[in-house]
């Protein structure tokens, strides 16, 4: 069965988890489909991505059948090999969206639990329905977050928030998640709002948007000197080039920019 659909329209990739009968829970087929979707979008000419889930929830985390198999599973050969540069397969579910060179906007509703939350953390922006619930669910099953969450969460939330969520596995309401920095904004129709934001981004200079995503990634982890140098390097690649000149011409002429 198909686990993920990818559709393109007006330079926007719409990536949808399509296992609504299981609340888009993550089994091995879903994990591989999400990675494949991210790789496909990364190689496309999309200028923005909307990531969403069908049915009642965005993603309720790991499929329960996977927990039943853990007693017979040798975890080391499954988790320790680095298959995608610095990640294993389960980590790449989240991190593949950081590798996508254009902005990714996650539209969240219902349960956003465990691996589902970590998947959402891989997006640049998260728009959540006010009734959505978010949880680092792993401790409920005697585990720790291991799908990229510990690489991403410290950039978003305070240490005490991270520790409380990790230690307790308690679901957090969307409004609290927004206050803590897990969610960018709340909206009664997160998919429509995510799509409108993607349309806005897709109408801007494609080369500048890609440069901005690269630069932000550097800014979040590198030294001051490296960030300042990268600012200059990215600007050199933009100033006077075709996309920037089209932006200037469109602004001066009061029209919508058209990028080739």
Topology overview:
Layout: E1 4-9, E2 12-17, H1 28-42, E3 48-53, H2 64-69, H3 75-79, H4 89-99, E4 104-108, E5 111-113, H5 115-121, E6 125-128, E7 133-135, H6 149-152, H7 159-168, E8 172-173, H8 174-180, E9 185-186, H9 190-202, H10 206-219, H11 224-236, H12 242-253
Parallel strand pairs: 2-3, 3-4, 4-6, 5-7, 6-9
Antiparallel strand pairs: 1-2, 7-8
Describe the protein in words:
This protein has 260 residues and is α/β, with parallel strands linked by helices. It folds into two domains: 4-201, Alpha-Beta Complex (2-enoyl-CoA Hydratase, Chain A, domain 1); 205-253, Orthogonal Bundle (Lyase 2-enoyl-coa Hydratase, Chain  A, domain 2). It has twelve helices and nine strands. The strands form two sheets. It has a six-stranded mixed sheet with strand order 1-2-3-4-6-9, with helices on both faces. It has a three-stranded mixed sheet with strand order 5-7-8. Strand 1 (4-9) and strand 2 (12-17) form a beta hairpin. Helix 1 (28-42) packs parallel to helix 4 and helix 4 (89-99) runs parallel beside helix 5 (115-121). The protein is globular. The model has no long low-confidence stretch (mean pLDDT 95).
